[in-house]
Design a protein that fits this description.
This protein has about 300 residues and is mostly helical. It is built from 13 helices and six strands. The longest helix is centred in the last third of the chain and has 26 residues.
């Protein structure tokens, strides 16, 4: 189950867990960070009680986590879920995680570990917009996908001597052996914008600023991978005095809307296999029943 940020994926997954024997695999590149709870809309304790979750709280905010690592670990979680006689429901909006899991990955070039460590802080200081500009300059085949994808494109181009897109053409993806059935939750743009504004307000009221302040006080660098995501980078700017308090919520909401638009574009053009699109304006319980009925009626994968 996928869709743009703020569309209600977690709520529908929780409702689905009440009517089917499932375990949930999170395909969210932010919820895997420990200590990043409020700003990632991580499932609550009540939501986690409804179903077993995999892929949450895996690493500290100072580490990077690749789509390749997700695919490898998710395949293990899915195998374990099947062994327990349950269905695995992959839930999340990180498109490259879904692509890596279901379509496989190309054979990546070897990168010198020492040079990669030295390059990492430089890339984090550039910021998302500059990273995407450099990625497009160094790799004519770069088609966007966010800061982490841009950083990877720059890293490969500089350290491997050839653009990432060339490596991908030369070493095609390895089949994953998994056949996905996608349920994509969608909302009309005004309705999604309203949900994003409400979620932003709720996050700030729930202590997003305090969460970031505590992470920084614990020694997490301002340019840590975990703090590069939407919401966190705006709060860091606010705490550094670069973003006034009254501008914080509008800035987060605007950045979230832009991210949601990129997700929607990616999902409409990059999903392969069986795909159904569902209007997320319906109640989560109704959507869960609809997803389950459509899945059971679908041809065997």
């Amino acid at each position: 189950m996928t869709g743009a940020t703020g569309v209600g994926k977690t709520q529908v997954a929780t409702a689905l867990a009440r009517v089917a024997v499932v375990e949930i695999v999170s395909a969210d590149s932010r919820q895997l960070y420990r200590g990043l709870d409020v700003g990632t809309a991580k499932p609550t304790a009540a939501e986690r009680a409804a179903a077993a979750y995999h892929g949450l709280d895996l690493i500290p905010p100072t580490e990077r986590y690749s789509a390749g690592r997700f695919a490898a670990e998710a395949r293990g979680w899915i195998a374990g879920i099947a062994a327990r006689g349950r269905e695995a429901v992959v839930v999340g909006g990180t498109g490259f995680y879904l692509k890596a899991l279901f379509e496989g990955l190309f054979t990546e070039p070897p990168l010198d570990a020492g040079r990669r460590r030295r390059l990492g802080p430089v890339l984090r200081r550039l910021g998302p917009a500059a990273l995407e500009r450099w990625a497009a300059r160094l790799d004519p085949g770069f088609r966007g996908g966010g800061a982490q994808r841009a950083a990877r494109a720059v890293e490969v181009a500089l350290l491997a001597g050839r653009p990432l897109s060339e490596w991908q053409r030369a070493a095609p993806a390895r089949p994953s052996g998994l056949a996905p059935w996608y349920a994509v939750l969608t909302l009309r743009r005004p309705a999604l914008a309203a949900r994003i504004a409400e979620r932003t307000r709720a996050m700030l009221e729930a202590g997003l600023v305090a969460e970031v302040r505590a992470l920084l006080a614990a020694g997490v660098p301002r340019d840590a991978p975990g703090l590069s995501g939407v919401g966190y980078r705006e709060v860091v700017a606010h705490l550094d005095g670069a973003l006034a308090a009254e501008r914080l919520a509008p800035a987060i909401a605007a950045a979230t809307r832009r991210y949601a638009k990129r997700q929607e574009t990616w999902l409409r053009h990059q999903l392969h296999g069986s795909v159904v699109w569902l209007d997320a304006a319906a109640a989560p319980d109704a959507l869960a029943r609809d997803v389950l009925a459509r899945y059971r009626a679908a041809p065997a994968l």
